[in-house]
Design goal:
Largest sheet: 4 strands, mixed
Structural class: alpha/beta
Number of domains: 2
Shape: elongated
Number of helices: 16
Distance between the termini: 22 Å
Strand order of the largest sheet: 2-1-5-6
Amino acid sequence: MNKIGLIIKREYSTRVKKKTFIIMTILGPILFAAMMIAPVILMQMESDDYKKIAVIDEARMFDNALKNTEYIDFEFVSDKYFDSATSTYNLTQAKADLKESDYYALLYIPHTAVQTNRGAVQLISYQQPNMGLKMHIANGIEKRIEDIKLSTKADDLGITQQDVDEILMVVNTNINVVTTTLDEKGGEKESSTEIAMIIGYICGFLIYMFVFMYGSQVMRGVIEEKSNRIIEVIVSSVKPFQLMMGKIVGVALVGLTQFVLWVVLTIGLVSIGQSILLKDYKMSEISQNTMSMGSQLDESGNPQDEDAMKFEEMFRAVYSVDYVTVISLFLFYFLGGYLLYAAMFAVVGSAVDNETDTQQFMLPITIPLVLGIIVMVSAINNPSGSLAYWFSIIPFTSPIVMMVRIPFGVPFTDLFISMASLVVSFVFMTWFAAKIYRVGILMYGKKVNYKELWKWFKYRN
């Protein structure tokens, strides 16, 4: 056991001192934090881009429909391009003037826009307009056309605009479906399907990435020592099984170290980024205020602050997840999945002399991992279905698929069977791999196939 500890210490210290480990440990949190903060920065950069838009409105009905914002300014130039002799608008001249003007785009609304619902409005620009601008214009025009048609219909029916507004207030209903989960003791807890989907997908994908990345490190380490003939010196002092276990556990500790550093550094960077981007706001105060404001209703029964309600829902959804359970089970399935596959990677490394020859043996390892990712997508949509259930029990795919199911809530029996199966499979795979490993690490210069691996497994010394 002391020899295994020495091998673990050597594997760990050697790998954490490598430049690649240090670089990835630094770059990883930066990339993760950038993925979280970049959308906010991009939105701010996008919103800061001031746009002035010229509008030709043939029907002269949309003056109040297109609302100016802090970054979008609509200027109606209908009179400038109206030809009184022909009673038409000179759109050709307006397009020609656009290039020399300070307008970002020209919005042309023909009179037919009131009668037709498609293909009538043109947004002309020398650049591709963004989706936000198009949606802002479309929503304003659609709302105005809707009001015109409702007003016309109201006149035909002999009712006032006030009656129409009251009808619309009654008809327009916004339904918010709040999910509540019950435990076996009858307790209730508000949950969020969207948050569970996001957490499950991230956890499943991270396990796939970590298992493949660190498992291949075991394989490359064995190939390197074997090709350099260092392995012969090492096995003269330790048993092959001790060497294999030392490598597997050593690399596992490297993976855990890097994962913990990624989590801590990412949280730190995101917190710093939030404090810079939201320096005028204190999130703790916002959360407390919105929690209290969101449930307050005015006399008509409507929320006093719609933004406060959204904040309240967001915070409830985030805090509804049992993060202690998720993180604990993530670490278990990460270690269990890694140990299972690392033993298989060690066998591949012992069977070949260079990485080029590993392709033929990588297929049985790669297929279950890729299959787990494929099933993960289906499990997100139906975490309690039979497909998600069985692939969360099968040890070769359970580390990925089960992590998708956990945020949605998994029965204790399913979790116990899955965890027990993973432990038993790891023990069996380690025993199986050790019997091949002890022969394979001393074999050089011979092309190995699956039949040869079976001979190594049955070999007795």
